[in-house]
Predict the structure.
Amino acid sequence: MCSSRVDPLFIFRSFLNGMDGVFIGGCWPGECHYSTEGNYDALTKKYIYKKLLAHIGINPDRLRLEWVSASEGIRFAEVMNDFSKQLIDMGPIGKAEGLTGDELKSRLDVAASLVPYLKLVEREKIRVRFKTEKEYEEYFNGDEFSKLFDEMIAQKVTTGQLIALLRKQDCTIGDIAQALALDRSVVTKQLHASIRQGFIHFDADNKRYCVGSQG
């Protein structure tokens, strides 16, 4: 199977099922068996989803992409041994990041729920085609991608985390800021946007925000 066919949802399902790391192996650049150059699509996904993992507080090094051809058995063994050692040194997912089991599951659930939207964003706004890995690295570590990520992905993630939190309990702005480790101004902006969309409302009697529309 081409590395580009690895659905990002598989990544989050693996973490939700207790895996400490996810490895994706692909053909070397320039040696793709398909005219679509799927390994470069996999490279694009790697950068997007590693940044997403970091955004939700999970070590992005838990996701690894390597070029390994079918004939490189020794290299494959070396890469897997190195990745296994790296994960052991890193520690169990969630615990190593200082997250409780519930916090980890909540964050991964939010990320997984956004995969259909993220596929659309990738196809319509982010998909690029360069000739070298260095060009991909420069683009995805540059200001243009960072701006796109903040505007089109980070805000969606924050909204998802916000709603997931309010499904468990009604909260004040301070409660939300503390639980999500966000600045109060960011929380206020997201709350106002979610209220306009009808996702949440403010309970004036209890002075807390709640899921659902008022009335």
